[in-house]
Predict the structure.
Amino acid sequence: MITIQRIGARELESISGKWNAFIRSSTNDNIFLTYEWISSWWQSFKSDARTFYFLLACDSRQTIVGAFPFQIVRRRFGRLLHLRLLQFIGRGGFDHETEYNTFMMPPTLPGQETNVYAAVADYLNAHNDDWDVLILANLLATHKSTPVLESEFKKKFKAVRSKQENNYVIVLSQTYDAFLNGLSRNQRRSFTRRLKGIQKDRAASFSIITKEHEIENYLRDYYLLVHQRHNWTPSKEKEVFMKLLCRELARSGWLRCYLLTLNTIPSATIFGFCYNKKYYAYKAAYNPEFFSLSPGTALYAFAIQNEIAHGSEALDYLLGEYAYKQYWCNDVRTVDYIQIIGKSVKSRCKVFLAYGLVKIRSRLKPRAWFGRT
């Protein structure tokens, strides 16, 4: 018998160790479901427009067998109308506040997928007055749990797949030489030439940031490079999040950021972390003044060399369509978005009105708009 419990942020904190142990043995063990990530994100971005809606699925012995780490985000349309979007914690919604893993399959213990998904669908159906639109984003299309999840939810709701995106991954070899041999001739030449060229420069320095005391100086260089490359300045909430996250990751031994300096000038960086033998390249940037030297390529070559030496089996670029990801990846994974409109008359009316407003304002063809970020 599966029971669903809705818990708050403080209750999750009280079972943080138990939660992480569950994630490690679940069908979706990734860093974005750890307590360290969830707590850092929620402390930074919680607001009056967000409600913690964390669902635990427990068996008769009160053992966690599954979970849906949700939040409710209120999206306003004009002065009077707003929608309550039920979506994963960590999803910025419409403001690109943060990213999470390539796929966010709700975690369950192996063999419990059907029971957990059916119980959660029943719970959400019984509490349909809590939300207007359910967004199940970044579901790995080839994951064995995806069709089970979709099937169980379709028994209670009308589920619509709204879009698909690609996630680019580099599957690493056991040795750096073997990795290079697996590249095309042009790729191999680019990697080795750029890395060796910069390594010969006495003014070049590669740094790996893993410790808590290194965070403050690194983040200063990171924000500088991101601004130079993308003309982007972080919000106060984002700065708080990055600082909290770095601290938690460093304490857990997962933080691994790379920085290249040329003549003491920050030239390229990869903000990332390693968990469960996978390196997540969360953000990357370089100084455009050094474009001719390809500092980003050189730094990725250095990072891959180091990750292979430390036993990493893959480098995950996460979501985002960039040419360099498509060029270097050797594995492409598709993720789906499933959207569900609540059954209540109030929810359906609100969605109809909000959709009409968006259509009028943007003059776009009809499409599943409320899942966009």
The chain has two domains: 3-166+334-362, 173-312.
